[in-house]
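Note on ligand handling. Small-molecule inputs were canonicalized before submission; formal charges were left as drawn, and no protonation-state enumeration was performed. Where a ligand contained multiple stereocentres, the stereochemistry in the source SMILES was retained. For pyridoxal-5'-phosphate, this procedure yielded the string shown in the input block below.
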Amino acid sequence: MRDVRRDFPILSRTVHGKPLVYLDNAATSQKPTAVIDALDRYYRETNANVHRGLHTLSEAATAAYEDARRKVARFVHAARPEEIVFVRNTTEGLNLVAHGWARKFLKAGDVVLLTEMEHHSNIVPWHILRDQIGITLRFLRVNDDGTLDLSDLDAALEGVKLVSFMHASNVLGTINPVRQIADAAHAVGAKVLVDGAQGVLQMPVDVGALGCDWYAFSGHKLCAPTGIGALWGRYELLEAMDPFLGGGDMIESVRLEGSTWAEPPARFEAGTPAISEAIGLGAAVDYLCSIGMAEIQAEDATLTAYALEKLPQVPGLRLLGSAPQRGPVFAFTLAGIHPHDLSALLDEDGIAIRAGHHCAQPLGRRFGVPASARASLAFYNVPEEIDALVTALMGAREMFANVRS
Amino acid sequence: MRDVRRDFPILSRTVHGKPLVYLDNAATSQKPTAVIDALDRYYRETNANVHRGLHTLSEAATAAYEDARRKVARFVHAARPEEIVFVRNTTEGLNLVAHGWARKFLKAGDVVLLTEMEHHSNIVPWHILRDQIGITLRFLRVNDDGTLDLSDLDAALEGVKLVSFMHASNVLGTINPVRQIADAAHAVGAKVLVDGAQGVLQMPVDVGALGCDWYAFSGHKLCAPTGIGALWGRYELLEAMDPFLGGGDMIESVRLEGSTWAEPPARFEAGTPAISEAIGLGAAVDYLCSIGMAEIQAEDATLTAYALEKLPQVPGLRLLGSAPQRGPVFAFTLAGIHPHDLSALLDEDGIAIRAGHHCAQPLGRRFGVPASARASLAFYNVPEEIDALVTALMGAREMFANVRS
Amino acid sequence: MSVRDMYREVILAHAQDPLHSGKLPDATDCVHRENTSCGDAIDLCAIVKDGVLVDLRYESAGCAISTASASMMTDALIGMTKADAAAMLASFRAFLIEHSELDPKLEELDALEGVRQFPARIKCALLAWQALEEILKKT
Amino acid sequence: MSVRDMYREVILAHAQDPLHSGKLPDATDCVHRENTSCGDAIDLCAIVKDGVLVDLRYESAGCAISTASASMMTDALIGMTKADAAAMLASFRAFLIEHSELDPKLEELDALEGVRQFPARIKCALLAWQALEEILKKT
Ligand SMILES: Cc1ncc(COP(=O)(O)O)c(C=O)c1O
Ligand SMILES: Cc1ncc(COP(=O)(O)O)c(C=O)c1O
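Structure output:
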């Protein structure tokens, strides 16, 4: 892969006088100049509201916005651009399916199957829906190695109308066998929603090949701006869904007595959308395609192998998850040092890692670790940064050990 | 007022070889360099996810995000920063009250009072809610001059639990007497939601003085980026509200069995927020405060007076709305030329106006004009641009008249 | 090409005095069609007998392009068989979108050529035709 | 000041061997408190008799700062009246937030001074005290 680091301005900054070592990519990715410039250019040259203007700026903004939709559609291999609904983030995408589809088509007692490794964004919407309409939630267990327990998938699927699970774990690194689960789910007539927040920057995504019905992801984790994400859905399903937010642009006509809805994706994009952000997402997928998602995947594999060799050399370090199919996300604990202290100490060395429950409290309970440290890499990280991490972990250990007894 | 035009890079561009005359501010405002640069700087220097990181970037991003909340709170004179919920736009803010408050506290037969001049974003959410829980909708009529018919407000308020209406009209220009309506509503125990989309750039907003319970607005109409807006709400009301979207950051704790909610505003900000956009909104209100909202209001008044003098000089031009209290928004029809054609023709002269129903179809029906042209100004417009508009309207008239018979 | 050139005289003339507009009391089929983005709307009614479009009338609210298109369309199609009308629809669509030659029977609609340069306006020119498409699908 | 300086020896020592941690079987009051943003949690229990905090114990999961704060807090407050404890709470809060002098009875907690430079960590130092506040409100 060509040298991509200089594409990311922030990577040349320092923190506490040390070069920034950004290992918090699972929380959010950094942005290449191409994306930053796309925003800048938009506001300096074409900013206008979309869809309803017949003047040059509005037409240009609309064209750019819809062009971004086409780019995102191509990026995930959607059948058509209209299968892409722009949302704020993965969370909104998942909630949109809960509101627009599940609330309409599920009834009391229907089972929604989730997994124990889900991010809160794929648990809480279902709690809310359960409390409102009485669906039943069931959870696939997680094995000790961080893979999903699929040993009795058929039993787990009994009575299930919807399976919703993550493509890749933001804690364990595990990449789940989407196709296998989707096929089994479809065999019992269930629909399949995939949380692609972590999957989408780690590998080429082909929603058709994955065999799911919806796929949600966040732009900010994909080198794009904050405030934008996408929900891909099979068009027939989007068509069957109720609107979620009401307002401008999502209607066909409004009378005082009632309203009729526009076709998807407009139906789900009420109000002035995140225009510059969608355009920024388009620029991000252009950028990623210019590198190649297969190359990115290969780079991730190299970094992962290196990290898996180095991290266990730190005494007292316990990695969570050892799935054979995994991305460059490493949650761990270090004996005697709380993850928050570790994160704060590493920051002194310019190293950004995350500490806490990573929005996956049930998974933390499953592994008996309410909080862990997490180093998560992206294709623009380099092995030297893993070395820096290991050195810093050693240093932290020493500092805390010196006090002990 | 000091010369502000050079603060807005886009204002120096040309369209079809003519200087851009941007008169579509009610659709979206343009952005000053201060805002564009804030985004740029954020992505080059501090981009990170907020709230959950203990590293320098994340702390800086969190501080900037929460600082933006404080700025917005001060801008609308909220009692405390926690009364500001960041949302995508006005539309989401209004829907949030419909979902989080009305769905919880209203029951079948309860009356929600709207007005005939509302934007679709303040009609459709109530249609959706009505179809779900059976509330009754009632509409205040609009007088011929574009003011609200408040002659029988007490009767209109009978049985009303919520009044929701716009601060300023995006079609008629009318500025509604918020305080008067709010006081009458509170006298019968109703809550008051104000759509501030157009109000917030036209005058200083003091939510306490307005006497409302919620106030929703969009950043993109306030010189800020797309993808961000705010819902101000009295804290006790926000506290009583149910969450809307489920996910990270809005929870207190998550177990497989159920979740508990965080306090407002976090409760309503599920998932990774629009971080750079909120920071951009903070930069926008800083910018506006540096000019002074009172100065902006005075500038608007000057422009409004000038437009009201000039526009009626165009033969065949019919202005919609002639309220004494009004902002610089002018919807009109021109005899013999459909608004779309007008907008397209004016674009040739570099003039951006809007044509259509302006997301207010019921209002259009009230005035018998399914579509109208609209020129909407902001404080950075100048009288010469109104002259240019008038000249262009004359030209369009001539062109169409030449064919006639 | 400038927007001004899109507004050929013949278009403006049709827009100001549209042919075949009005109600059609004995209509066998009526459809309503709207462009949600701009609010243009048309009610197109037809008398269809033995597969022939014996008469077409419409009531519309829209820009010069959509009105002229409705006017010229009805003028060209009244009296045609549904099959022929369907062929005309296909020809007009291809003319606008793929820039192909227009069927000679639609001669006058050639005046809408300029619309092709303005993607936002293509849907204006198509509105009446989309209504026609629904009429053709019926019965 | 660097983060390293925040972790004074005494803090690390308390964090590694916290005083008064564990269950309190005869507790008259127990409260649970969590920092939602980081997941730190504490269960603080007290035996309150005649307005006196006869005993305090806690079970906690958290960083060195929050653990050391709980350890030093309980060590300082056991045996105090509720009124005195409330004064200590006020003093500690003011110390952290307004940088005022700490009450001499809280002497050891002075070691947390460095936390003031790290706004994100103040809530760690306050967690046990917020739990205490709820205990004080009870009965
Ligand atoms: C009065 C009014 N309310 C609501 C809205 C909706 O704002 P947004 O599209 O930003 O949600 C608008 C603008 O389109 C408006 O003018
Ligand atoms: C697996 C997973 N799902 C969902 C989310 C939520 O994404 P967002 O906060 O962008 O909505 C995240 C990231 O936080 C994640 O890692």
